[in-house]
Amino acid sequence: MKIAFFQPPAAQSAGGIAAAIHPLETNLQDLGHKVVHSLEDQPDLVHFHGLWQPAHLSLARTCRARGLPYLVSPHGMLEPWAFRSKRWKKYPYFFLGERPYLKRAAALLGTSPLEADHLREMVPGVRVVSLPLGLTDSARPDYLTARSALNWKPAEKILLYLSRVDRKKGLDILLQALAETSPPSARLVIVGGGHPAYLRHCHRLATQHAPTLPPIDWMGEVWGAGRWPFLQGADLFCLPTHSENFGLAVLEALQVGTPVLTTRHTPWPGFMEHQEGGYFCDSERESVRAALRQFGESPAWPESKRAPLAAWARGAFDWSALIPKYEALYREIAPSAHPRA
Predict the structure, then answer these.
(1) Parallel, antiparallel or unpaired: strands 186-191 and 157-162
(2) Beta strands in 102-145 (DSSP E)
C-alpha cells in the first residue's frame, strides 16, 4: 500500500507531531508499505497530520477530485485548550475552511478516547477512530546508571519536568505547588526550552518562592538520546499540563519505569486505570499540591517496580501491537489498494 503523509512545516509543528509521525512512518515501511510525501507519487490514500494548513485544504480538494480517500489526525489541535488559544483567528477559519475539509474526510483519527470524544463534538457526523501513538525509542529502565551519569545523590528525590516550557504545560503551577508542599530531600530538574516571556515568568516565580522551594536545576533543552538518563534516573516525572491529546513525554517516562504525576486533562488516567505508577490531579495549584503530598507520603518507588511498569508500557504501546490496527484502518479506507506497495 502506498500512503501519502502530509504534516505542517517544521517551524509550524506543535508539540510532538514529528516525534509521533516518524515511528509510524518507519514501522509502516518496515512492513513493506511505502510512505510518500506527494500526490504525484499516486498514493492509495492520504493521511494528513495537524491542522491550520491552507496547503492541506488545497491538497484535500485535489484528493476529492481524484476520488482519493483521506484521513486526518489533528494531533490535539482541536482540544479545548488549544482551540481557545488565538480563538479570534481560529474560530472563523475553522468554520469556513477547516470543518468542511474535516467533514469530507473518510475518518478523523484521535490518539486517545479523550481526543476522539472532543473530535466528535467539534465535527459531528464524521467517523472518528481512536488509535494511540507508540514508543519513540527502545530505552528501558536503568535507574542507577542514569543517576550516576548525572551525579544525582542517592538520597535525593528527583522530580523531573521534561517538556516544552509553555504555559499549557503548567510549570508555573508545579513551582507554586512545590513551594507549599515539597517532598523530603526533593530536587526539581527542569529540562526544556520555551517562549522567553514565559521562561522569565517561571524564573521570577522560582526566585519569589526560593525559601520554600527545593533546589532547582534549569538544564535547558536536551534532545535525542541525551534525554533518556533524565527520564531513567528521576523518581517522579511531573507534567501538570492543562491539556494533552496524548502526551508522548508521559509515555517515555513510563517506558523506563518512572512513575508520573500528570493531570486528568490527559488520557493517562484512563490508560493507567489498572496500573500502578500514576498520580493524577487537576491543573490547579491545590490539586497538584495534593498529588505531590501523596507522592511524598507514599513508600519509595523501588527499582523492583520499575521493570513491571516499563513492561506494561511496552506491551500497551509498542508499535508491533499498534501497526496492525493502523494497517487495518488504511485498508478499510482504501479497500482496492494492494496490501503492500
Answers:
(1) parallel
(2) 107-110, 128-130
